[in-house]
Specification:
heterodimer, A: 114 residues, mainly beta, 6-stranded mixed β-sheet, 5-stranded antiparallel β-sheet, 0% helix, globular, B: 114 residues, 4-stranded antiparallel β-sheet
């Protein structure tokens, strides 16, 4: 079946650098996307979301880019800090999905090097 | 802030025991969800509920049941726990409508079945 996936399981960046975490999706009916951050031993924490009528959305130090042509989603984190170390998940939902759950990617582990 | 709480952070049970996992949200959300999270498999939806006394099966409902007697509370029940139900269990909630797609998660319950 269709699913959401990630290109890399682990990403290591230097503190202060920008990070880009990628996500590919295959469900062309998906119209809503979310990025979550999950720190060790904690539940996923909402970071930012985007709907399919947009191609870019910015938050505090984070930007989500959506390319519907190639079904690609990315999360950019500016000036990464040690507290950014976590697993990042993308998730998607299609317009016909109703109240049911999101489809999650497996996650990318972001490691911040001092 | 949305707050989703789960009754236990860690739980150890024996095979065959009946297990109750409780989840409470304080944002008057209509939708509530139960996921399990396993290494390499990501988050998988067990059950969800879009209203009091309503429930819908997710992707992996076998071996589980749920109860939603009050809007703020959603319980996951393992009728007879088995070792393959050892996992991290995550509860989430969301509002209805277009603004309600974002799911907010609790801290998780790490269940070990011996």
């Amino acid at each position: 079946g269709e699913s959401v996936g990630l290109h890399l399981p682990t990403l290591s960046v230097q503190e202060g650098d920008n990070s880009i975490i990628n996500c590919a999706y295959s469900n062309s009916a998906s119209d809503y996307f979310i990025w979550y951050k999950q720190e060790s031993g904690k539940g996923p924490q909402f970071i930012i979301d985007i709907r399919s009528n947009m191609d870019k959305r910015q938050g505090q130090r984070v930007t989500v880019l959506l390319n519907k042509t190639v079904k690609h989603l990315s999360l950019q984190i500016a000036a990464t800090q040690p507290g950014d170390s976590a697993v990042y998940f993308c998730a998607e939902k299609d317009r016909g999905g109703g109240a049911d759950g999101l489809t999650f990617g497996k996650g990318t582990h972001l490691i911040i090097q001092p | 802030d949305v707050k989703v709480t789960q009754s236990s952070r860690y739980l150890v049970k024996r095979t065959g025991e009946k297990v109750f996992l409780e989840c409470v949200q304080d944002m008057d959300h209509e939708n509530m969800f139960w996921y399990r999270q396993d290494p390499g498999l990501g988050l998988r939806l067990i059950y969800f509920s879009y209203d009091v006394k309503m429930k819908e099966k997710g992707d992996i409902p076998e071996g589980y049941s749920v109860s939603r007697e009050k809007k703020e509370r959603f319980s996951l029940i393992l009728e007879s726990a088995s070792t393959n139900q050892t996992s991290m269990y995550l509860c989430a909630s969301s509002a209805t409508g277009a603004v309600g797609d974002t799911q907010y998660f609790g801290p998780g319950t790490r269940l070990t079945v011996l």
